Amino acid sequence: MKRTLLVLTLIAVFATIAACAPAPTPAPTAAPPTAAPKATEAPKPTAAPKPTEAPKPTTAAPAPTATTAPRPTVPPGRVKVEFWFGLGKPLGDVLEAIVMDFNKSQDKYYVDAIYKGGYVDTMNAAIAAYRAGKAPHIVQMFEVGTATMMAAKGAIKPVYQLAQETGWNLDPKIYIPAVRGYYSEGDKMISMPLNSSTPIMYYNIDAFKKAGLDPTKPPKTWAETRAAAKKLVESGATKCGLTFEWPTWIHLENFSALHNIPLATKANGMLGMDAELKFNSDLHIRLLQTLMDMAKEGSFKYGGRDGAATVLFPSGECGIIHASSAARARIQRESKFAWGVTYLPYFDDVPGVPKNSIIGGASLWVMNAPGRTADEYKAIAEFFKYISKPEVDARWHQETGYLPITHAGNDKTKADGYYQKNPGADLPYLQLTRTEPTENSLGLRLGNMPQIRIVVYEEWEKAFQGQQTAKQAMDNAVKRGNEILREFEKTYK
Q1: What is the reported pLDDT for 13?
Q2: Tens of pLDDT along 114-125?
Q3: Shared-domain flag, residues 396 and 341
Q4: 97-140 residue pLDDT tens
Q5: Is residue 367 domain-shared with residue 316, that is, in the same domain?
Q6: Are both 168 and 269 inside the same structural domain?
Q7: 62 shares a domain with 181
Q8: Which among 440, 413, 438 is positioned nearest to 427, based on CA atoms?
C-alpha cells in the first residue's frame, strides 16, 4: 500500500510538472564571454534558433527509452550507478566529460551518465523506471520542481541523509548561500546543486553611445532604467528600449528577493505547505504599473512567455534586456554590437535594497529503488564530493557559463585569471552573494510553481492588453495561485 501511494505521488508530481514546465533557456556554450562593459568587437552572429515549444501535457509516463549510443563497458569490479540528465549539447558534453574524469579518478565506482532528451523526457523516464522498481540512482530536476520532489517522500533520499549514511562529512557552508538555500530544508541539504543561473541586465553599448547615454554608467534603479529605455527609443538608437525573458522568474520571484518582500508566507513556502501567496503588495503592483506605463510610452516591449523575448536583444531591436546569466553565450554568439552587463534594477526608495538575487537551473536528486546497496549510495556520495571540488566546480563554471556552486570554485576561477580575461563574467556570482539571504531572498518552496507561473502570465498579459488594472491582475493571480497551492497541499500533506 505504501509503495502504491509513492508511485501515485510520483505520477502526479511529474505529470503536473511535465504539463506546465517551461522550455529551457538555450544552453550556453563553452566559448569565452564577450568583454563587458568595455566595448569590443563582437563575434559574427549566427542565425537565432527558433523558440522551443512548450511540451504538451502528459497524463501517463512513457516507458524509458534506450539511448541511441551504445553504453560504455563498465570496468570489472566497479560499483555502477546510473545518472539520468537532461542537458543537451554542448552542456551535456561538458557534463559527460566531468563524469568520465570522475570514473578515471578512482577504481572503485563508475557513474554511467545517460542523456534522456531534456528535463521533461528525463522526468517521464524516471516515473516509468520508478514504477518498474528500477529508478536511476541520480536524476536531474529543474529548480521549480523542488517542492514537488520533496513531497514524494520515500522515493528520494535527501543529500544530508546520504551523507550521514555514507560517512561523508558534508559541509553545507562551502556552497553559495543562495544556492544551498534553494535546495535545503532548514540547514539540511535535500538535493545536490549543479547548474545554477541568476538573472542580470544586458545592455547595448553601441546603442547607448548613439543615444547619448554613458555605457560606463549603466542604469541602477528602475527610474534610471526607464529613462534610458525611453532615450534609446526617442533617439532612434533602438526600436524598443527594454524587454525581458522569463517574466515571472525575473520580475516576480527575483524582484521580491531583491526588495526583501515576501512572494508568499511561511518564508516563501520553506516552512510549510500551507503557505499563501503575497505578491499583490503595493510594491509588486507598482512594478507592473511601471511596465504598463512604459509599454504605453513605447519604451518597453513584452516579448512573451519564458525565453521568447531573448532574441529581441541580440537582434538589436531592444537596447536593454533582463535575462538569465546563462543567456550570455547566445548573446555573444548572435549580437553584431558591443554589449555590457550589470545588476538588475531596483526601486531605490525601498529601505535596505537591493538584496541578493535567487537562482534558476537544476539540481541532482538521489532516488531509492528496491535492492539498492550501501555501496551504490557510497558511490553517489563520492561523485557528489567530486563535483564539489574547487577545480571541478571552477571548470564547470568556466566551460558552461553557469555559476560556480561553491565559494572555492569562484575563488579558483578568480585565481585562474578568468574574470580578468572575461570582465563581467563574475557579476552573477556577485549579485547572488551581495547580501546574506533573508527569508525573502533564500529561494522558493511552493508546490506546482510551474502552474502558478502560467497563471501570472495570463493575468499580466490581460493587463498589458488594457483588459484590467495592475491591481486587478496581481489580485487575480494571487487568488488563482492560492487555489493551486491548496490543491497541492490537499494532495500531499
Answers
A1: 52
A2: 999 877 788 788
A3: no
A4: 999 999 999 999 999 999 998 777 887 888 789 889 999 999 99
A5: no
A6: no
A7: yes
A8: 413
Tell me, yes or no, whether 13 and 93 share the same domain.
yes
One domain for residues 274 and 333: yes
Range of the domain at 272: 199-358+447-487
CATH code for the domain of 63: 3.40.190.10
pLDDT tens for 234-281 read 999 999 999 999 999 999 999 999 999 999 999 999 999 999 999 999
Residues 238 and 347 in one domain: yes
- Total domain count, the chain: 2
Mean pLDDT of 29-56: 35
Identify whether 158 is preceded by a cis peptide bond (ω within 30 of 0): no
pLDDT interval class at 3 (50, 70, 90): low
| Judgement on whether residues 149 and 75 belong to the same structural domain of the protein | yes
Instruction: Tell me, yes or no, whether 42 lies in a domain.
Output: no
